[in-house]
Amino acid sequence: MTSYTDKIREISKRLLKEGKVDMVIGFTKGSVPMMNQPMFARNQNDVDGFAWDGNCGINLANYVTGRSEKIGIVAKGCDSRNLAVHIVENKIKRDQLYIIGVPCTGMVDRHKLTASVGGEIEAIEEDAAGKTVTISGNDFSETVDRVDVLQENCALCMHRNPVIYDELIAEEVPEQTEESVDRYEAVRKVEEMSPEEKWAYFDDLFSDCIRCYACRNACPLCYCPTCFVDESKPQWVGKSIDPSDIRIFHFLRAYHCAGRCTDCGACVRSCPMGINVRALTKKLEKDSLEYFGWEAGLTTEQRPPLDTYKPDDPEQFIK
Prior knowledge:
319 residues, alpha/beta, five-stranded mixed beta sheet, three-stranded antiparallel beta sheet
């Protein structure tokens, strides 16, 4: 990962020096372990603060919508797909962006790492080959295989390389295939449940939700001027943590992302309660693929299926 950091700094410095961009958006080390944070570099000296490792899970596409500047942005596969969605939805123009593509083998899951040790993690270090992760604290140090502590969305990712970019920082990494991973296994298990079992499953899934809206705020697709949860005329959903209000919030937000979600995992990564919000969005991703042959963010030339109408659209869902 050190070579990635050096290359990101090198490219960013060149872009700023040549005046090709007004700023570069990347990552810098966070103030706590496993929480790298976005960084805006507006001059050549700033770029020395850029860093890259397995803790860059925030989706930087969040920070380009509605801007007028020429922007350089560091983008892994899912970030680039969200940039494509933003371009299609007219939130940013393609010629405003200089996309620094980062081939990605996945981000580590801070929830998994925290659960694997008995104490507070004070430092995390990945080996140069990207095979292991060493976590340490006041009275422990443990090395684990990196593949065992990846975010679930990363373990199932089929588009690890950026789909749109202006420059790659390294050679593309091998993509996973339908034969090597079963990305919808968890979805099918829920689909096979009885209605009563599904009700119990989702009740349990959202039982810890505190309505902090971290999932919404981290999502690069949630940029409505007024979110439906904040509407008062009409009021679509209450503000309480009543189970019905919680369910309505999560289900409606998921449907709003249908055909647009790239499974970047930002919602799950940001949740302080560790709720697997992807249980909803992954189902809608599966349906978009099966009914419409559509995966979000793979093109800037076509709008998502739920944003268009065709006379021969599938109608199996109509009873």
